[in-house]
Structures are given as C-alpha cells and as structure tokens.
Design brief:
Layout (H helix, E strand, L loop, with lengths): L1 H26 L3 H23 L6 E4 L5 H10 L2 H4 L3 E4 L2 H9 L13 E6 L3 E2 L5 E2 L6 H9 L1 E9 L15 E5 L4 H11 L5 E2 L16 E5 L3 H4 L2 H9 L4 E4 L1 E2 L5 E5 L4 E5 L1
Amino acid sequence: MLARSRLVAQQLRQHTIARPLAISRMTSSSTPAAANVIEASKQLAAYTAVDQHIKPEHTIIGIGSGSTVPYVVDRIVQQGVEVNKNRIFVPTGFQSKELIVNAGLTLGDVDQISAIDVTIDGADEVDKNLNCIKGGGACHLREKVVAEAASTFIVVADYRKNAEFLGTNWAPGVPVEVVPFAYVKVLRDLKALGSPHPVLRMAVKKAGPIVTDNGNFVIDAPFGREDMLDPAAVLTKIKLLTGVVEVGLFCNIVTAAYFGNAVYCSQISC
C-alpha cells in the first residue's frame, strides 16, 4: 500500500508542478495578477476539500490556521445554516477562533471535546508521503493537538507547498516551540543534531521574539536533504530534547492533501 501511495503521489506531483509553473510565468509581469492566481489556488483547494470531506453527519470539526483556512470556513458557511446549526467548530489558534466567531458558527474547545470528526488545516510544505512542515504561523502545538484528535486530518494548500521532500521550498526550517528559559540550550542541542543554523524567530512589529498563543518561543531549525528524507526520525530526535514543547513536523497523520492552482485541484491520499 505504501509503495502504491508513493507512486500515486509521484504521478500527481509530476502533473501538478508543470502547469502551475506555466501559470507563474504568464503572471510574473503583474504582481496583482500573480497574487490573484495564488488566492484562486487556495480557494480551489479549500473548497474541494470541504466538498469531499465535510459531510452533513460531521458535527465536530477542527479548523486550522493559515492563509488558506478562511476559504475553508467560507465554504462551510455556504453549506447552509441548517446543516451548521448543530455543529461545533474547534480552533487551533486566535486566527481560526476569530474566523469561526465572525462566521456565526458555534465555537468549541479541544479540551472540552473527546474526539473530532474532521480537521482541515493548511501547511507550509507537504512531501510525497504526506509528511508536513507546519508552524510558519507559530500555531503548530495547537494544530497538532487538533489534528491528532480528529478521525480524518485534511491538508489544503496552493501548488507552491507541494514538494517531493520537506525543505525543498520551505527555507526557514523546522519550527520548534520551546519554553522561553530553555531556548539557548535548545539552540545548542539543535546544532548538535545537525541543524547548521537554528535561529530564534523574531517578531516583525514588536521588539523581541515571537511569542506563541501558549506563551512560548519558536526556533526555526533547517536540516539538510539527507536528514529530511526521514522526517519522522528528525521529529523524534527533536521532541526528546528537554525544553522542547512541540515540533512542526506532522508525520503519518495526514489522510489527504489538496493542492490547487487557478485551473484545477489535485489530491494526494494515503
């Protein structure tokens, strides 16, 4: 089954990469046009995933974070008031909480719910085996809790996030959430594990580092291609470091990933 999944993933990737590159060339002379292609890609992936996986019988739904997720909520709302009135929506962070509330949907919390039917979330990068890098928005601890609590975990993204190996397109590295007083030690530990230049993620519009919804810091730790051929092994090594809260590698938990561009949507399933 795994060999067949890898073959299907490879065939889909060969199909999906060629046409998006052509679209990028056509729109590269116009930044607004290129941005429109990206947004259309996100919308198509999100709408397709909701249509395929959010069914009337699903009453507990996890809502992830990132720039594709607003389209997920939009499509769920389009399913109608009647089907949504008995549903509870579980957010992964401040952004998704606001999306749920502003859409008039019923807000829940993962610590009050024993199981989730379906969670849909974005990703920073997805490899051919459905391993993901997540945490560009510094929400990966809560994202992983909500993902693992779900019977079905679906990833949605535009074509740029689709890669054969993790680290191909996502340059910052693996997001690692750490308790603040341990960040210097964890930086040293990550170097010892083979990350050439792990860095504490700094905020853009405030002095000092990014602070997660849980009050922690985030380190971005890039690893080489050889390490990322086995992201589950990298995940295990980092997770064992004292001071690490969670790692932005999601391995062996994704049911399917949807990648859109302005023309079509492709799917990779386990």
